[in-house]
Design a protein that fits this description.
Elements (H helix, E strand, L loop, with lengths): L6 H41 L7 H4 L3 H20 L9 H8 L6 H18 L3 H4 L7 H13 L3 H14 L8 H15 L2 H14 L4 H16 L15 H6 L8 H5 L3 E4 L5 H4 L3 E7 L4 E5 L4 H11 L4 E2 L12 E6 L4 H14 L9 E6 L5 E4 L9 E10 L9 E5 L3 E5 L6 E5 L12 E4 L8 E8 L16
Antiparallel strand pairs: 1-2, 2-3, 3-11, 4-5, 5-6, 6-13, 7-12, 8-11, 8-13, 9-10, 9-12
Helix pairs in contact: 3-5, 5-7, 7-8, 8-9, 9-10, 10-11
Bound molecules: 2-oxoglutaric acid and fe (ii) ion.
């Protein structure tokens, strides 16, 4: 617009000013109202705020950890929702917000899936896993939905059932939805009578719902066709070797085998660096040979390693990228950190192997129900991981009895207890360069506690004279 070249334009502007004043006043009213809402939101947030207990402490219980994540997400969203443009005048607040990361739905789903995995592996009903902390009906329903979407219909059923039993007038969860999901998960699990029972309940609540009628008749037809009706109320106890080992049910340490194991002080074959401070060495398993070294890292070094790693952690990958079989975060640390250089040197002294082609030290922290499912550390590339040196950085309170397991054959195995400050060493490759098929291993899901480990993967190149090759097919 050009105002100087038309008197009418300027006349119109007077009208506009009147409108503008009106809306300006309305805007102020709205802002005032907004301030009131914000104040009341802040009051509510302050009410639910209690003095920070050690957050690491809270994260030890997986159910509490799930709850905390969910609450934080809701509250942070609540704060951000109230932001108006005028807030951007408050630099400090804006700065805080710019760096705020709100947990996404994906995080909540991941936490819920962690709970479900724990239940599967340790054979736990919802009541078993909620010994310390209970979930609300809404939270339980969310866990149920996550289980349902992963086709874990029995666990989904249990959570929906728990949700139904704890439903209150304040719950956001709808009873009809719950009945629908209860019926549908029972059907998908193969328990038609239970599916029919809940379908019927839903129909009683909602007698005009034609969809339910159609579904019920489908369930009845299937019930007549099917011969087996698995009992959805009883957890199946069949399990893989991995699961049995994690539960501590099998351990092939027969007394005969145990007697052949030994422990001693070692100087790494006369390494001058270990002459005055020999390392405590214990053979934990004979085939493949697994050696435990006790007290190889001090509490102070552990704290430093954790502090360096914390801000650098990112989701761990496997050879195929990010994967559900490995739920942890990790970081590779360079030797620029004196503590890392020290630890690497110690590993070199103890193993007598060259660190020239080794990978950087990897520090790893597991998540809710975090685990590393059975895998081999080495494959058949040119310069493979000849050995793994795994340090238990911190395993405070891990109730799952076992940190890492080595599965030997289909029905055998050994479960190693994660002991803080100790490390275990094994060779992934035979002396002839082939993968030792007995070195398949896993990290059991963390049932309780915060599990940190540090890995040093030592590679083949440079070990020619330290671990001579063999031409034998067998060794
Ligand atoms: O955390 C564990 O106990 C096992 C870790 C592991 O096997 C790996 O990182 O390759
Ligand atoms: Fe591994």
């Amino acid at each position: 617009h050009e105002f100087f070249s038309s008197t009418d334009q300027t006349a119109q502007l007077v009208e506009k000013k009147k409108d503008l004043l009106m809306s300006f006043s309305q805007y102020i009213d709205a802002e005032e109202k907004n301030v009131e809402t914000m104040k009341s939101a802040l009051r509510n947030l302050l009410l639910s705020y209690s003095d920070p207990v050690d957050p690491e402490e809270i994260m030890r219980d997986p159910v509490t950890a799930y709850k905390l994540l969910r609450q934080l997400r809701d509250e942070l969203i609540n704060i951000v929702k109230h932001i108006q443009p005028s807030f951007y005048q408050c630099n400090e607040y804006q700065y805080e917000l710019d760096f705020l990361e709100i947990p996404q739905m994906e995080d909540l789903n991941g936490a819920a899936l962690g709970l479900i995995r724990l239940q599967e592996i340790y054979k736990l009903y919802p009541e078993d896993i909620m010994k310390e902390m209970s979930l609300s009906a809404d939270e339980a329903c969310h866990v149920g939905l996550v289980a349902f979407n992963e086709d874990k219909f029995q666990h989904a059923f249990f959570w929906f059932q728990y949700s139904l039993n704890t439903l209150t007038e304040y719950s956001a969860t709808n009873k009809k939805d719950l009945l629908h999901y209860l019926s549908f998960s029972a059907y998908r699990f193969g328990s038609q009578p239970v599916a029919i029972y809940f379908g019927q309940q839903l129909l009683n609540l909602d007698p005009t719902n034609d969809e339910v009628k159609v579904q019920l008749s489908l369930y009845r037809r299937h019930h007549l066709l099917r011969t087996s009706n698995p009992d959805i109320f009883i957890l199946n106890t069949e399990s893989s070797n991995y699961e049995t080992l994690c539960r501590g049910e099998i351990d092939e340490r027969t007394s005969k085998r145990q007697r052949a194991l030994s422990c001693r002080y070692s100087t790494g074959g006369g390494n001058p660096r270990l002459m005055y401070a020999p390392v405590k060495e214990e053979v934990e398993w004979d085939e493949p040979r697994i050696i435990r070294y006790h007290d190889i890292i001090s509490d102070r070094e552990i704290e430093i390693l954790k502090n360096i790693s914390r801000p650098l952690l990112s989701r761990s990958e496997t050879k195929r990228g990010v994967s559900k079989i490995r739920t942890s975060q990790s970081v590779f640390l360079k030797e620029d950190y004196p503590v890392v250089a020290r630890v690497n040197q110690r590993i070199a002294n103890i193993t007598g192997l060259s660190m020239k082609s080794a990978e950087d030290l990897q520090v790893q922290n597991y998540g809710i129900g975090g685990r590393y499912e059975p895998h081999y550390d080495s494959g058949d590339d040119e310069n493979e991981r000849i050995a793994t040196f795994l340090i238990y950085v911190s395993v405070a309170l891990v109730i799952s009895p076992n940190g890492i397991i080595n599965i030997i054959g289909l029905h055998f195995g050994v479960a190693l207890k994660p002991k803080k400050g100790s490390a275990v060493l094994w060779y992934n490759l035979l002396k002839n360069g082939n993968v030792d098929l007995y070195t398949e291993h896993a990290g059991c899901p963390v049932l309780k506690g915060n599990k940190w480990v540090a890995n040093k993967w030592i590679r083949e190149f440079g070990q020619e004279f330290r671990r001579p090759c063999s031409l034998s097919y067998w060794e």
